[in-house]
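Materials and Methods. Structural model of Nucleotidyltransferase family protein. The 415-residue sequence of Nucleotidyltransferase family protein from Rhodanobacter glycinis was retrieved and submitted for structure prediction as follows.
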Amino acid sequence: MLPPLRIVRNGLRRTTEALAAELAQPGGAMPAWSELEWQLASAVAVAHGVSPLLCQFSAWQHSPWQRFLQSQREHVELRHRRIAALLQRIDTDARAAGLALVPLKGSALHAIGLYAPGERPMADIDLLVREDDAAPAIRLLLQLGYVESFVQWKHRVFKPATGRPFAGLGEHRDTPINIELHTRIQERLPISTVDITGWIYPQAPRPGLNPYPSIGDLMSHLLLHAAGNICGRSLRLLHLHDISLLAKRMVASDWDALCGERAADAPWWALPPLRLVARYYRHAIPDAVFARLERACPPLLRTISRRQTLTQVSCSALWLHAFAGIEWSRSARDVGQYLRNRVRPSEEAIRERADMVRTQLWLQGQSWVTLNHARRILTWLTRPVPRMDTLYVVRAALETPASAVQMTRHASAEG
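The predicted structure was written out as tokens:
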């Protein structure tokens, strides 16, 4: 049985903000948390993808907490070896096929040495391919033993033909490695689509795996991805950490490229994620960058982003938002379309929801997600509705005793 949701909600907020502060500025005093709060902290660390990083940076001497973090780091390192081997296989096969691919986000951050194996979890491998090369790229994945799981407007998702997802708390070395195939790099914020594919795909690609054209281009993608997640209330602390680390490698010309020298429309969407980074990672972002981006950001979003916290724009906020992301609308037309979509979802949205219910472990057996849309709207209007993804990881944390964490650690070490 879960504790009262009010207690869970408050505990998630306290632990999220404490972990964000500790990761950004390690060495803080250990919190005087109850056992429930330590369990919620493990749920937060998993949901935000920072368990292995906290193992490296946090020195809080709470034995079950330290065992859990160490176990997570070991699992992430073991899984990273599998990911690295798979990327090498993809590179070899793509070279033989004359196919150019760009590994995105986490793969790219590891490739430039921003993280060592075991420090950063990767849920899957993201690959960018030209639209004209999508068919041969799909054939390559099928030959690797993958099958198509579902299609969304942003990407196609492939999963191994064999293997089942791990149903416990956190990262596991044996979790299947999914692959997301992109032909565009884009986000809906929340209606209008921002597309930066031209910034990301190399001008002179070569067969095999290609890097981003520049560090500034990688930063642009991280910021757009973070913007989409803020808009959808699904940002992770890991996203902020990625941006803060990459910012240390950027020089003035990289920031110039980001701030719109090459585009007619300045990246107004970059301001909210950069402000969140600066909230926790002080001095990570040059002041001049904010001055340039503020001019392009819509007034309402600019105002709201000044006071947002990680909890408010992530799964650490327990209640679902009926109108999440509406403040990102850039026109009255966008607001109207957003509201129409909430009342009457498009066929595409209905299909994507059905795919999520079918493929996502944390949605299995949840009655809320199978209600018709009218019933869900009525529920939103009459009572707070908790997020299913958040409840899933909270339940997993509460059901995982310290002894099980210790056994998991031993199993990973023996592997």
